[in-house]
Amino acid sequence: MKRMRLKIFMITAFAGLVTLSGCKKFLEEKSQSDVIPKTAIDYRELLMGSGYMDNSEPMGFVYFLDDDVDLFWEYANGEATVIGTNPAIQYFPLFTWQPRLADRNGLGDLIAEDPGSTAYFRYYKWIMGCNAVLENIDQSIGSQQEKDRVKAEALAVRALYYFRLVNLYGEPYTQNPQALSIPLKLNSGIVAGSMPQATVAEVYNRVVADLKEASRLMDALPIVRKDYHINQPAIHILLSRVYLYMEKWDESRAEADKVFEQGGQIANLTGYTTTWLNYNNPEVEWLFGGNTQPNQTTYVPSIPFRATFDPKDVRINVGIQVQDRSLTPLVSKLPIGLDLAQTLRTPEALLNRAEANVKLNNPGPALKDLNDLRRNRIIGYTDVNITDKDQLLQAIREERRKEFCFEGFRWFDLRRYGMPEITHRYQNALGESIQEFKLAAKDPMYTLPFPNSLLIRNPELKQNASGTMPERVGH
């Protein structure tokens, strides 16, 4: 029994993720309870507590990186409300893609001195929780169906974390699949020494393998919705996304089809007046994680992006609301407080399928999917007929941008689109010139630098080129 307890709760990070004192603290926290997992239900609860994301989001910082966000430029009573303020300065390194963005904020504060504060560490901590469950679930007490559901959930959730990590710290799959990315840790045991990095392709292959096995185990079981556990349609949405990033169009389309075969639906949301990132929305298959937007009033939806919405598109009214007094355009689609704020929902399957169909030279079904989604988002919408394939692809990608804005999609999508040039404007203080900062096409910063605290603790981690660039200067 003692050995069993150690095996379950020694979910320790490999060297390079935590120090020994960090491991000790983790073990002490986990050993407070005398409850030892025995049944499949116990392991499902352990997975929910140690493997599933809580109501935080480690990679919320990507909000500042893409082309949907801008510094607040509106004026109230003749005065700029945020230019030169601490919040504006704090996120300057992220907003202007500085090589120090992983280590210091614009105020000069160390932000990743403790590796436990990094997105890298936090995702791996949840991965370790998944690994512990996967190692022990087969020996638990319970029916095979109960064990299969727990195993499938652990595999799928772990796959999501690795997908995010490889898209933060590895090059885009279609650009350089053999580039080094992140370590693959597939068990909960202690590793003596540091761990080497796997290639981008190796991580993607593991993600696909985990999701395929998760769907094999779960598809034979009854579909359960709205219980905060990942379910069958959500797994197929995620697998469709991964295949899309790999440009495996047939596979992406096939996985998207399965979502609708399993009861996924596109709902008419033109009557919604509040956030639809919750289980009140029939499109939501899985609700999880925390807010993807760290700053509400300083870095706001950009004017060019807001201009792309049809005035009768409910997503602009529900998702981005301009405050009367300050004229500040705020992101209002995201829940506030401690509510869970992220979803896997059926519109992604529809748009994944539409994009794949264009690439497979099937523009008819792609156009139908595009019109179907718009009809359920834009009041009084009239179907369009787009005959040019390039224009249709662009329209589908713009629809994806609107549907999932500020949910952590855009930065990853820009990477897979070929890493285009984008710019941000920044002003240090009122009266000073406005500077333009450029992220060049295929810029190394599209692959983020590792925090130095991680490099110190894991000597086998090789810093990405973005971490050795000179300071980026505005013009």
From TrEMBL:
- The superkingdom listed in its UniProt entry is Bacteria
Report whether Signal shows up as a keyword of the record. Answer: yes
Q: Does the keyword Magnesium apply?
A: no
Boundaries of every SusD-like N-terminal domain copy: 114-244
- Where is each RagB/SusD domain found? 344-465
The record's listing under InterPro entries reads: SusD-like_N, SusD_RagB_dom, TPR-like_helical_dom_sf
Location(s) in or outside the cell: Cell outer membrane
Concerning SUPFAM superfamilies, the annotation shows: TPR-like
What residue range is the signal peptide?
none
Q: What is its main location?
A: membrane
Q: Name one GO cellular component term.
A: cell outer membrane
Q: Which UniProt keywords apply?
A: Cell outer membrane, Membrane, Signal
Recorded hits in Pfam families, A to Z, give:
SusD-like_3, SusD_RagB
The family classification in the record reads: Belongs to the SusD family.
The protein, known as: RagB/SusD family nutrient uptake outer membrane protein
Q: What is the lineage of its organism?
A: Bacteria, Pseudomonadati, Bacteroidota, Chitinophagia, Chitinophagales
